[in-house]
Amino acid sequence: MPGTFDYVVVGAGSAGCVLANRLSEGGRYSVCLLEAGPADRYLWIHIPIGYGKTMFHPVYNWGFHTEPDPNMNNRRLYWPRGRTLGGSSSINGLIYVRGQKEDYDHWAALGNRGWSWNDCLPYFRRLEHNELGAGPTRGVDGPLWASTIRQPHALVDAFIAASNRLGVRTVDDFNTGDQEGVGYYQLTTRHGWRCSTAVAYLKPARHRANLHVETNALASRIRFDGTRATGVRFLQHGEMREVSARRGHVLSRDFARTLSEAKWQSIVLGSMGVLIGLFWPAALMFCLIWLATAFTTRYSSLSALVAAFITPIFLWWFGHLALAALSAVLTLLLFYAHRENIKRLQAGKESRIGEKA
Ligand SMILES: Cc1cc2nc3c(=O)[nH]c(=O)nc-3n(C[C@H](O)[C@H](O)[C@H](O)COP(=O)(O)OP(=O)(O)OC[C@H]3O[C@@H](n4cnc5c(N)ncnc54)[C@H](O)[C@@H]3O)c2cc1C
Questions:
Q1: Please, what are the domains in the chain?
Q2: In this structure, what DSSP letter does residue 136 have?
Q3: What is the 177 CA–ligand 1 centroid distance (Å)?
Q4: Any idea which of 187-191, 290-294, 330-334 has the lowest mean pLDDT?
Q5: Confidence band for 349, pLDDT divided at 50, 70 and 90
Q6: Residue 352: is it exposed, middle or buried by C-beta count within 10 angstroms (0-12/13-18/19+)?
Q7: Concatenated DSSP letters for 295-337?
Q8: How far away, in angstroms, is 82 Cα from ligand 1 center?
Q9: How far is the CA of 21 from the centre of ligand 1 (A)?
Q10: What's the Rg (C-alpha) of the chain?
Q11: Cα–Cα distance between 87 and 17 in angstroms, integer?
């Protein structure tokens, strides 16, 4: 793999696939696209009803959980996110809906230039191949298909009729900016198959010599030269590798993952700092926790695992027997708490067999 590109895009999800396609269009710039998950070769990704299979899949889904939410009786809610080419567009519910015009205009009014409904509309039209045909808010020449549901259901029809009787109007197209009403949504399918952004944007661009795609490539660090991002380190098949970018990086990893990592890093590094100030054996113990967490939550390498197990031995060596025992117990607890991640790591390895990056 050549090590230097014009652009490095991290995350081949809904946004990443579009960016990789558009940046590599015309052949002027070289682009490297890094995706933490494997290729989207699992059949159920492509069959629309297959989201029942991918909803809890240990390889193709990150399977996050929220923190306990006081407004939800302190429950932790399941938060699925796609982990493959196409990202969440490979596992989502396929409902094609842009949202309400007023929301866009509100974002623009808050100072986000370029986000008003009218600013976005040309891009909406450009991206879609809408089966309802061309119109002021619809496009027909784009790669992402918006298909009309072909099998209406008697119960849905009865619901629509009942709503009409109550004065709620029927809406044939929920993407005109005004969603008020009742009707059938369109789906992001093409000839009955899921049309993820990997299918719509990445597949047609894969043959380009200036686009390089790496799967099973978990980006873990961005190298900076001053304020300019110049390289990305990533873990692939147990090895740390690096790519450099001449022009720029685009982070299109989903926000849920970014949040969870940032939270862990700040909590753990903060605790370490305080404890180093107090006394060093405890600092060592917290290093252990950090390393174990780093390993089990998949943003570090095998060396972290080794280091985690060495720490109790160090503590024992220096005569801190109680701390050594405590740190060993903590390591085991951490590994137990993250056993699903570890299983997923193992499953990820299996899924890589025979896969071409
Ligand atoms: C189950 C489910 C159902 C949904 N249903 C609908 C629906 O019906 N209609 C609708 O409009 N929206 C739906 N959504 C939401 C929609 O799919 C998402 O909002 C959208 O796909 C998010 O796009 P994104 O590019 O921000 O992130 P994603 O598409 O999630 O892409 C992020 C990518 O980055 C990768 N990544 C993360 N961290 C790293 C790293 N460190 N290194 C390398 N790669 C990394 C991930 O593996 C992933 O491929 C649904 C989402 C889910 C999960």
A1: 1-93+198-252 (3.50.50.60), 95-187 (1.10.1220.110), 257-349 (no CATH)
A2: T
A3: 23
A4: 290-294
A5: very low
A6: middle
A7: HHTTSS-HHHHHHHHHHHHHHHHTT-HHHHHHHHHHHHHHHHH
A8: 5
A9: 17
A10: 24
A11: 9
- Give the span between the Cα atoms of 172 and 251, in whole angstroms: 36
Q: Which ligand 1 atom sits closest to the C-alpha of 15?
A: 25
Mutation choice for ligand 1 from 34, 194, 254, CB with most ligand atoms inside 8 A:
254
Q: Which of 258, 257, 287, 259 is nearest to 271 (CA)?
A: 287
Say if strands 186-187 and 228-236 run parallel, antiparallel, or are unpaired.
Answer: unpaired
Backbone angles phi, psi at 160, to 5 degrees: -65, -45
| Ligand 1 centre distance from Cα of residue 45 (Å) | 13
Q: Are 271 and 278 in contact (CB under 8 A)?
A: no
pTM for the whole structure: 0.75
Atom of ligand 1 nearest to the CA of 87: 49
pLDDT band at 251 (very low <50, low <70, confident <90, very high): low
Residue 214 CA, ligand 1 centroid: distance in Å:
18
- β-pair type (144-148, 228-236): unpaired
CA distance 171 to 250: 37
Q: How many CB atoms lie within 10 A of CB 18?
A: 21
CA distance 39 to 299: 19
**In the predicted model, is pLDDT for residue 336 greater than 90?**
no
Spell out which residues line ligand 1, taking CB within 6 angstroms: 10-16, 34-37, 80-83, 87-89, 91-95, 97, 218-219, 252-254, 257
Mean pLDDT of the chain: 84
State in Å: Cα 72 to ligand 1 middle: 24
Q: Which residue has the tokens 């304020």?
A: 227
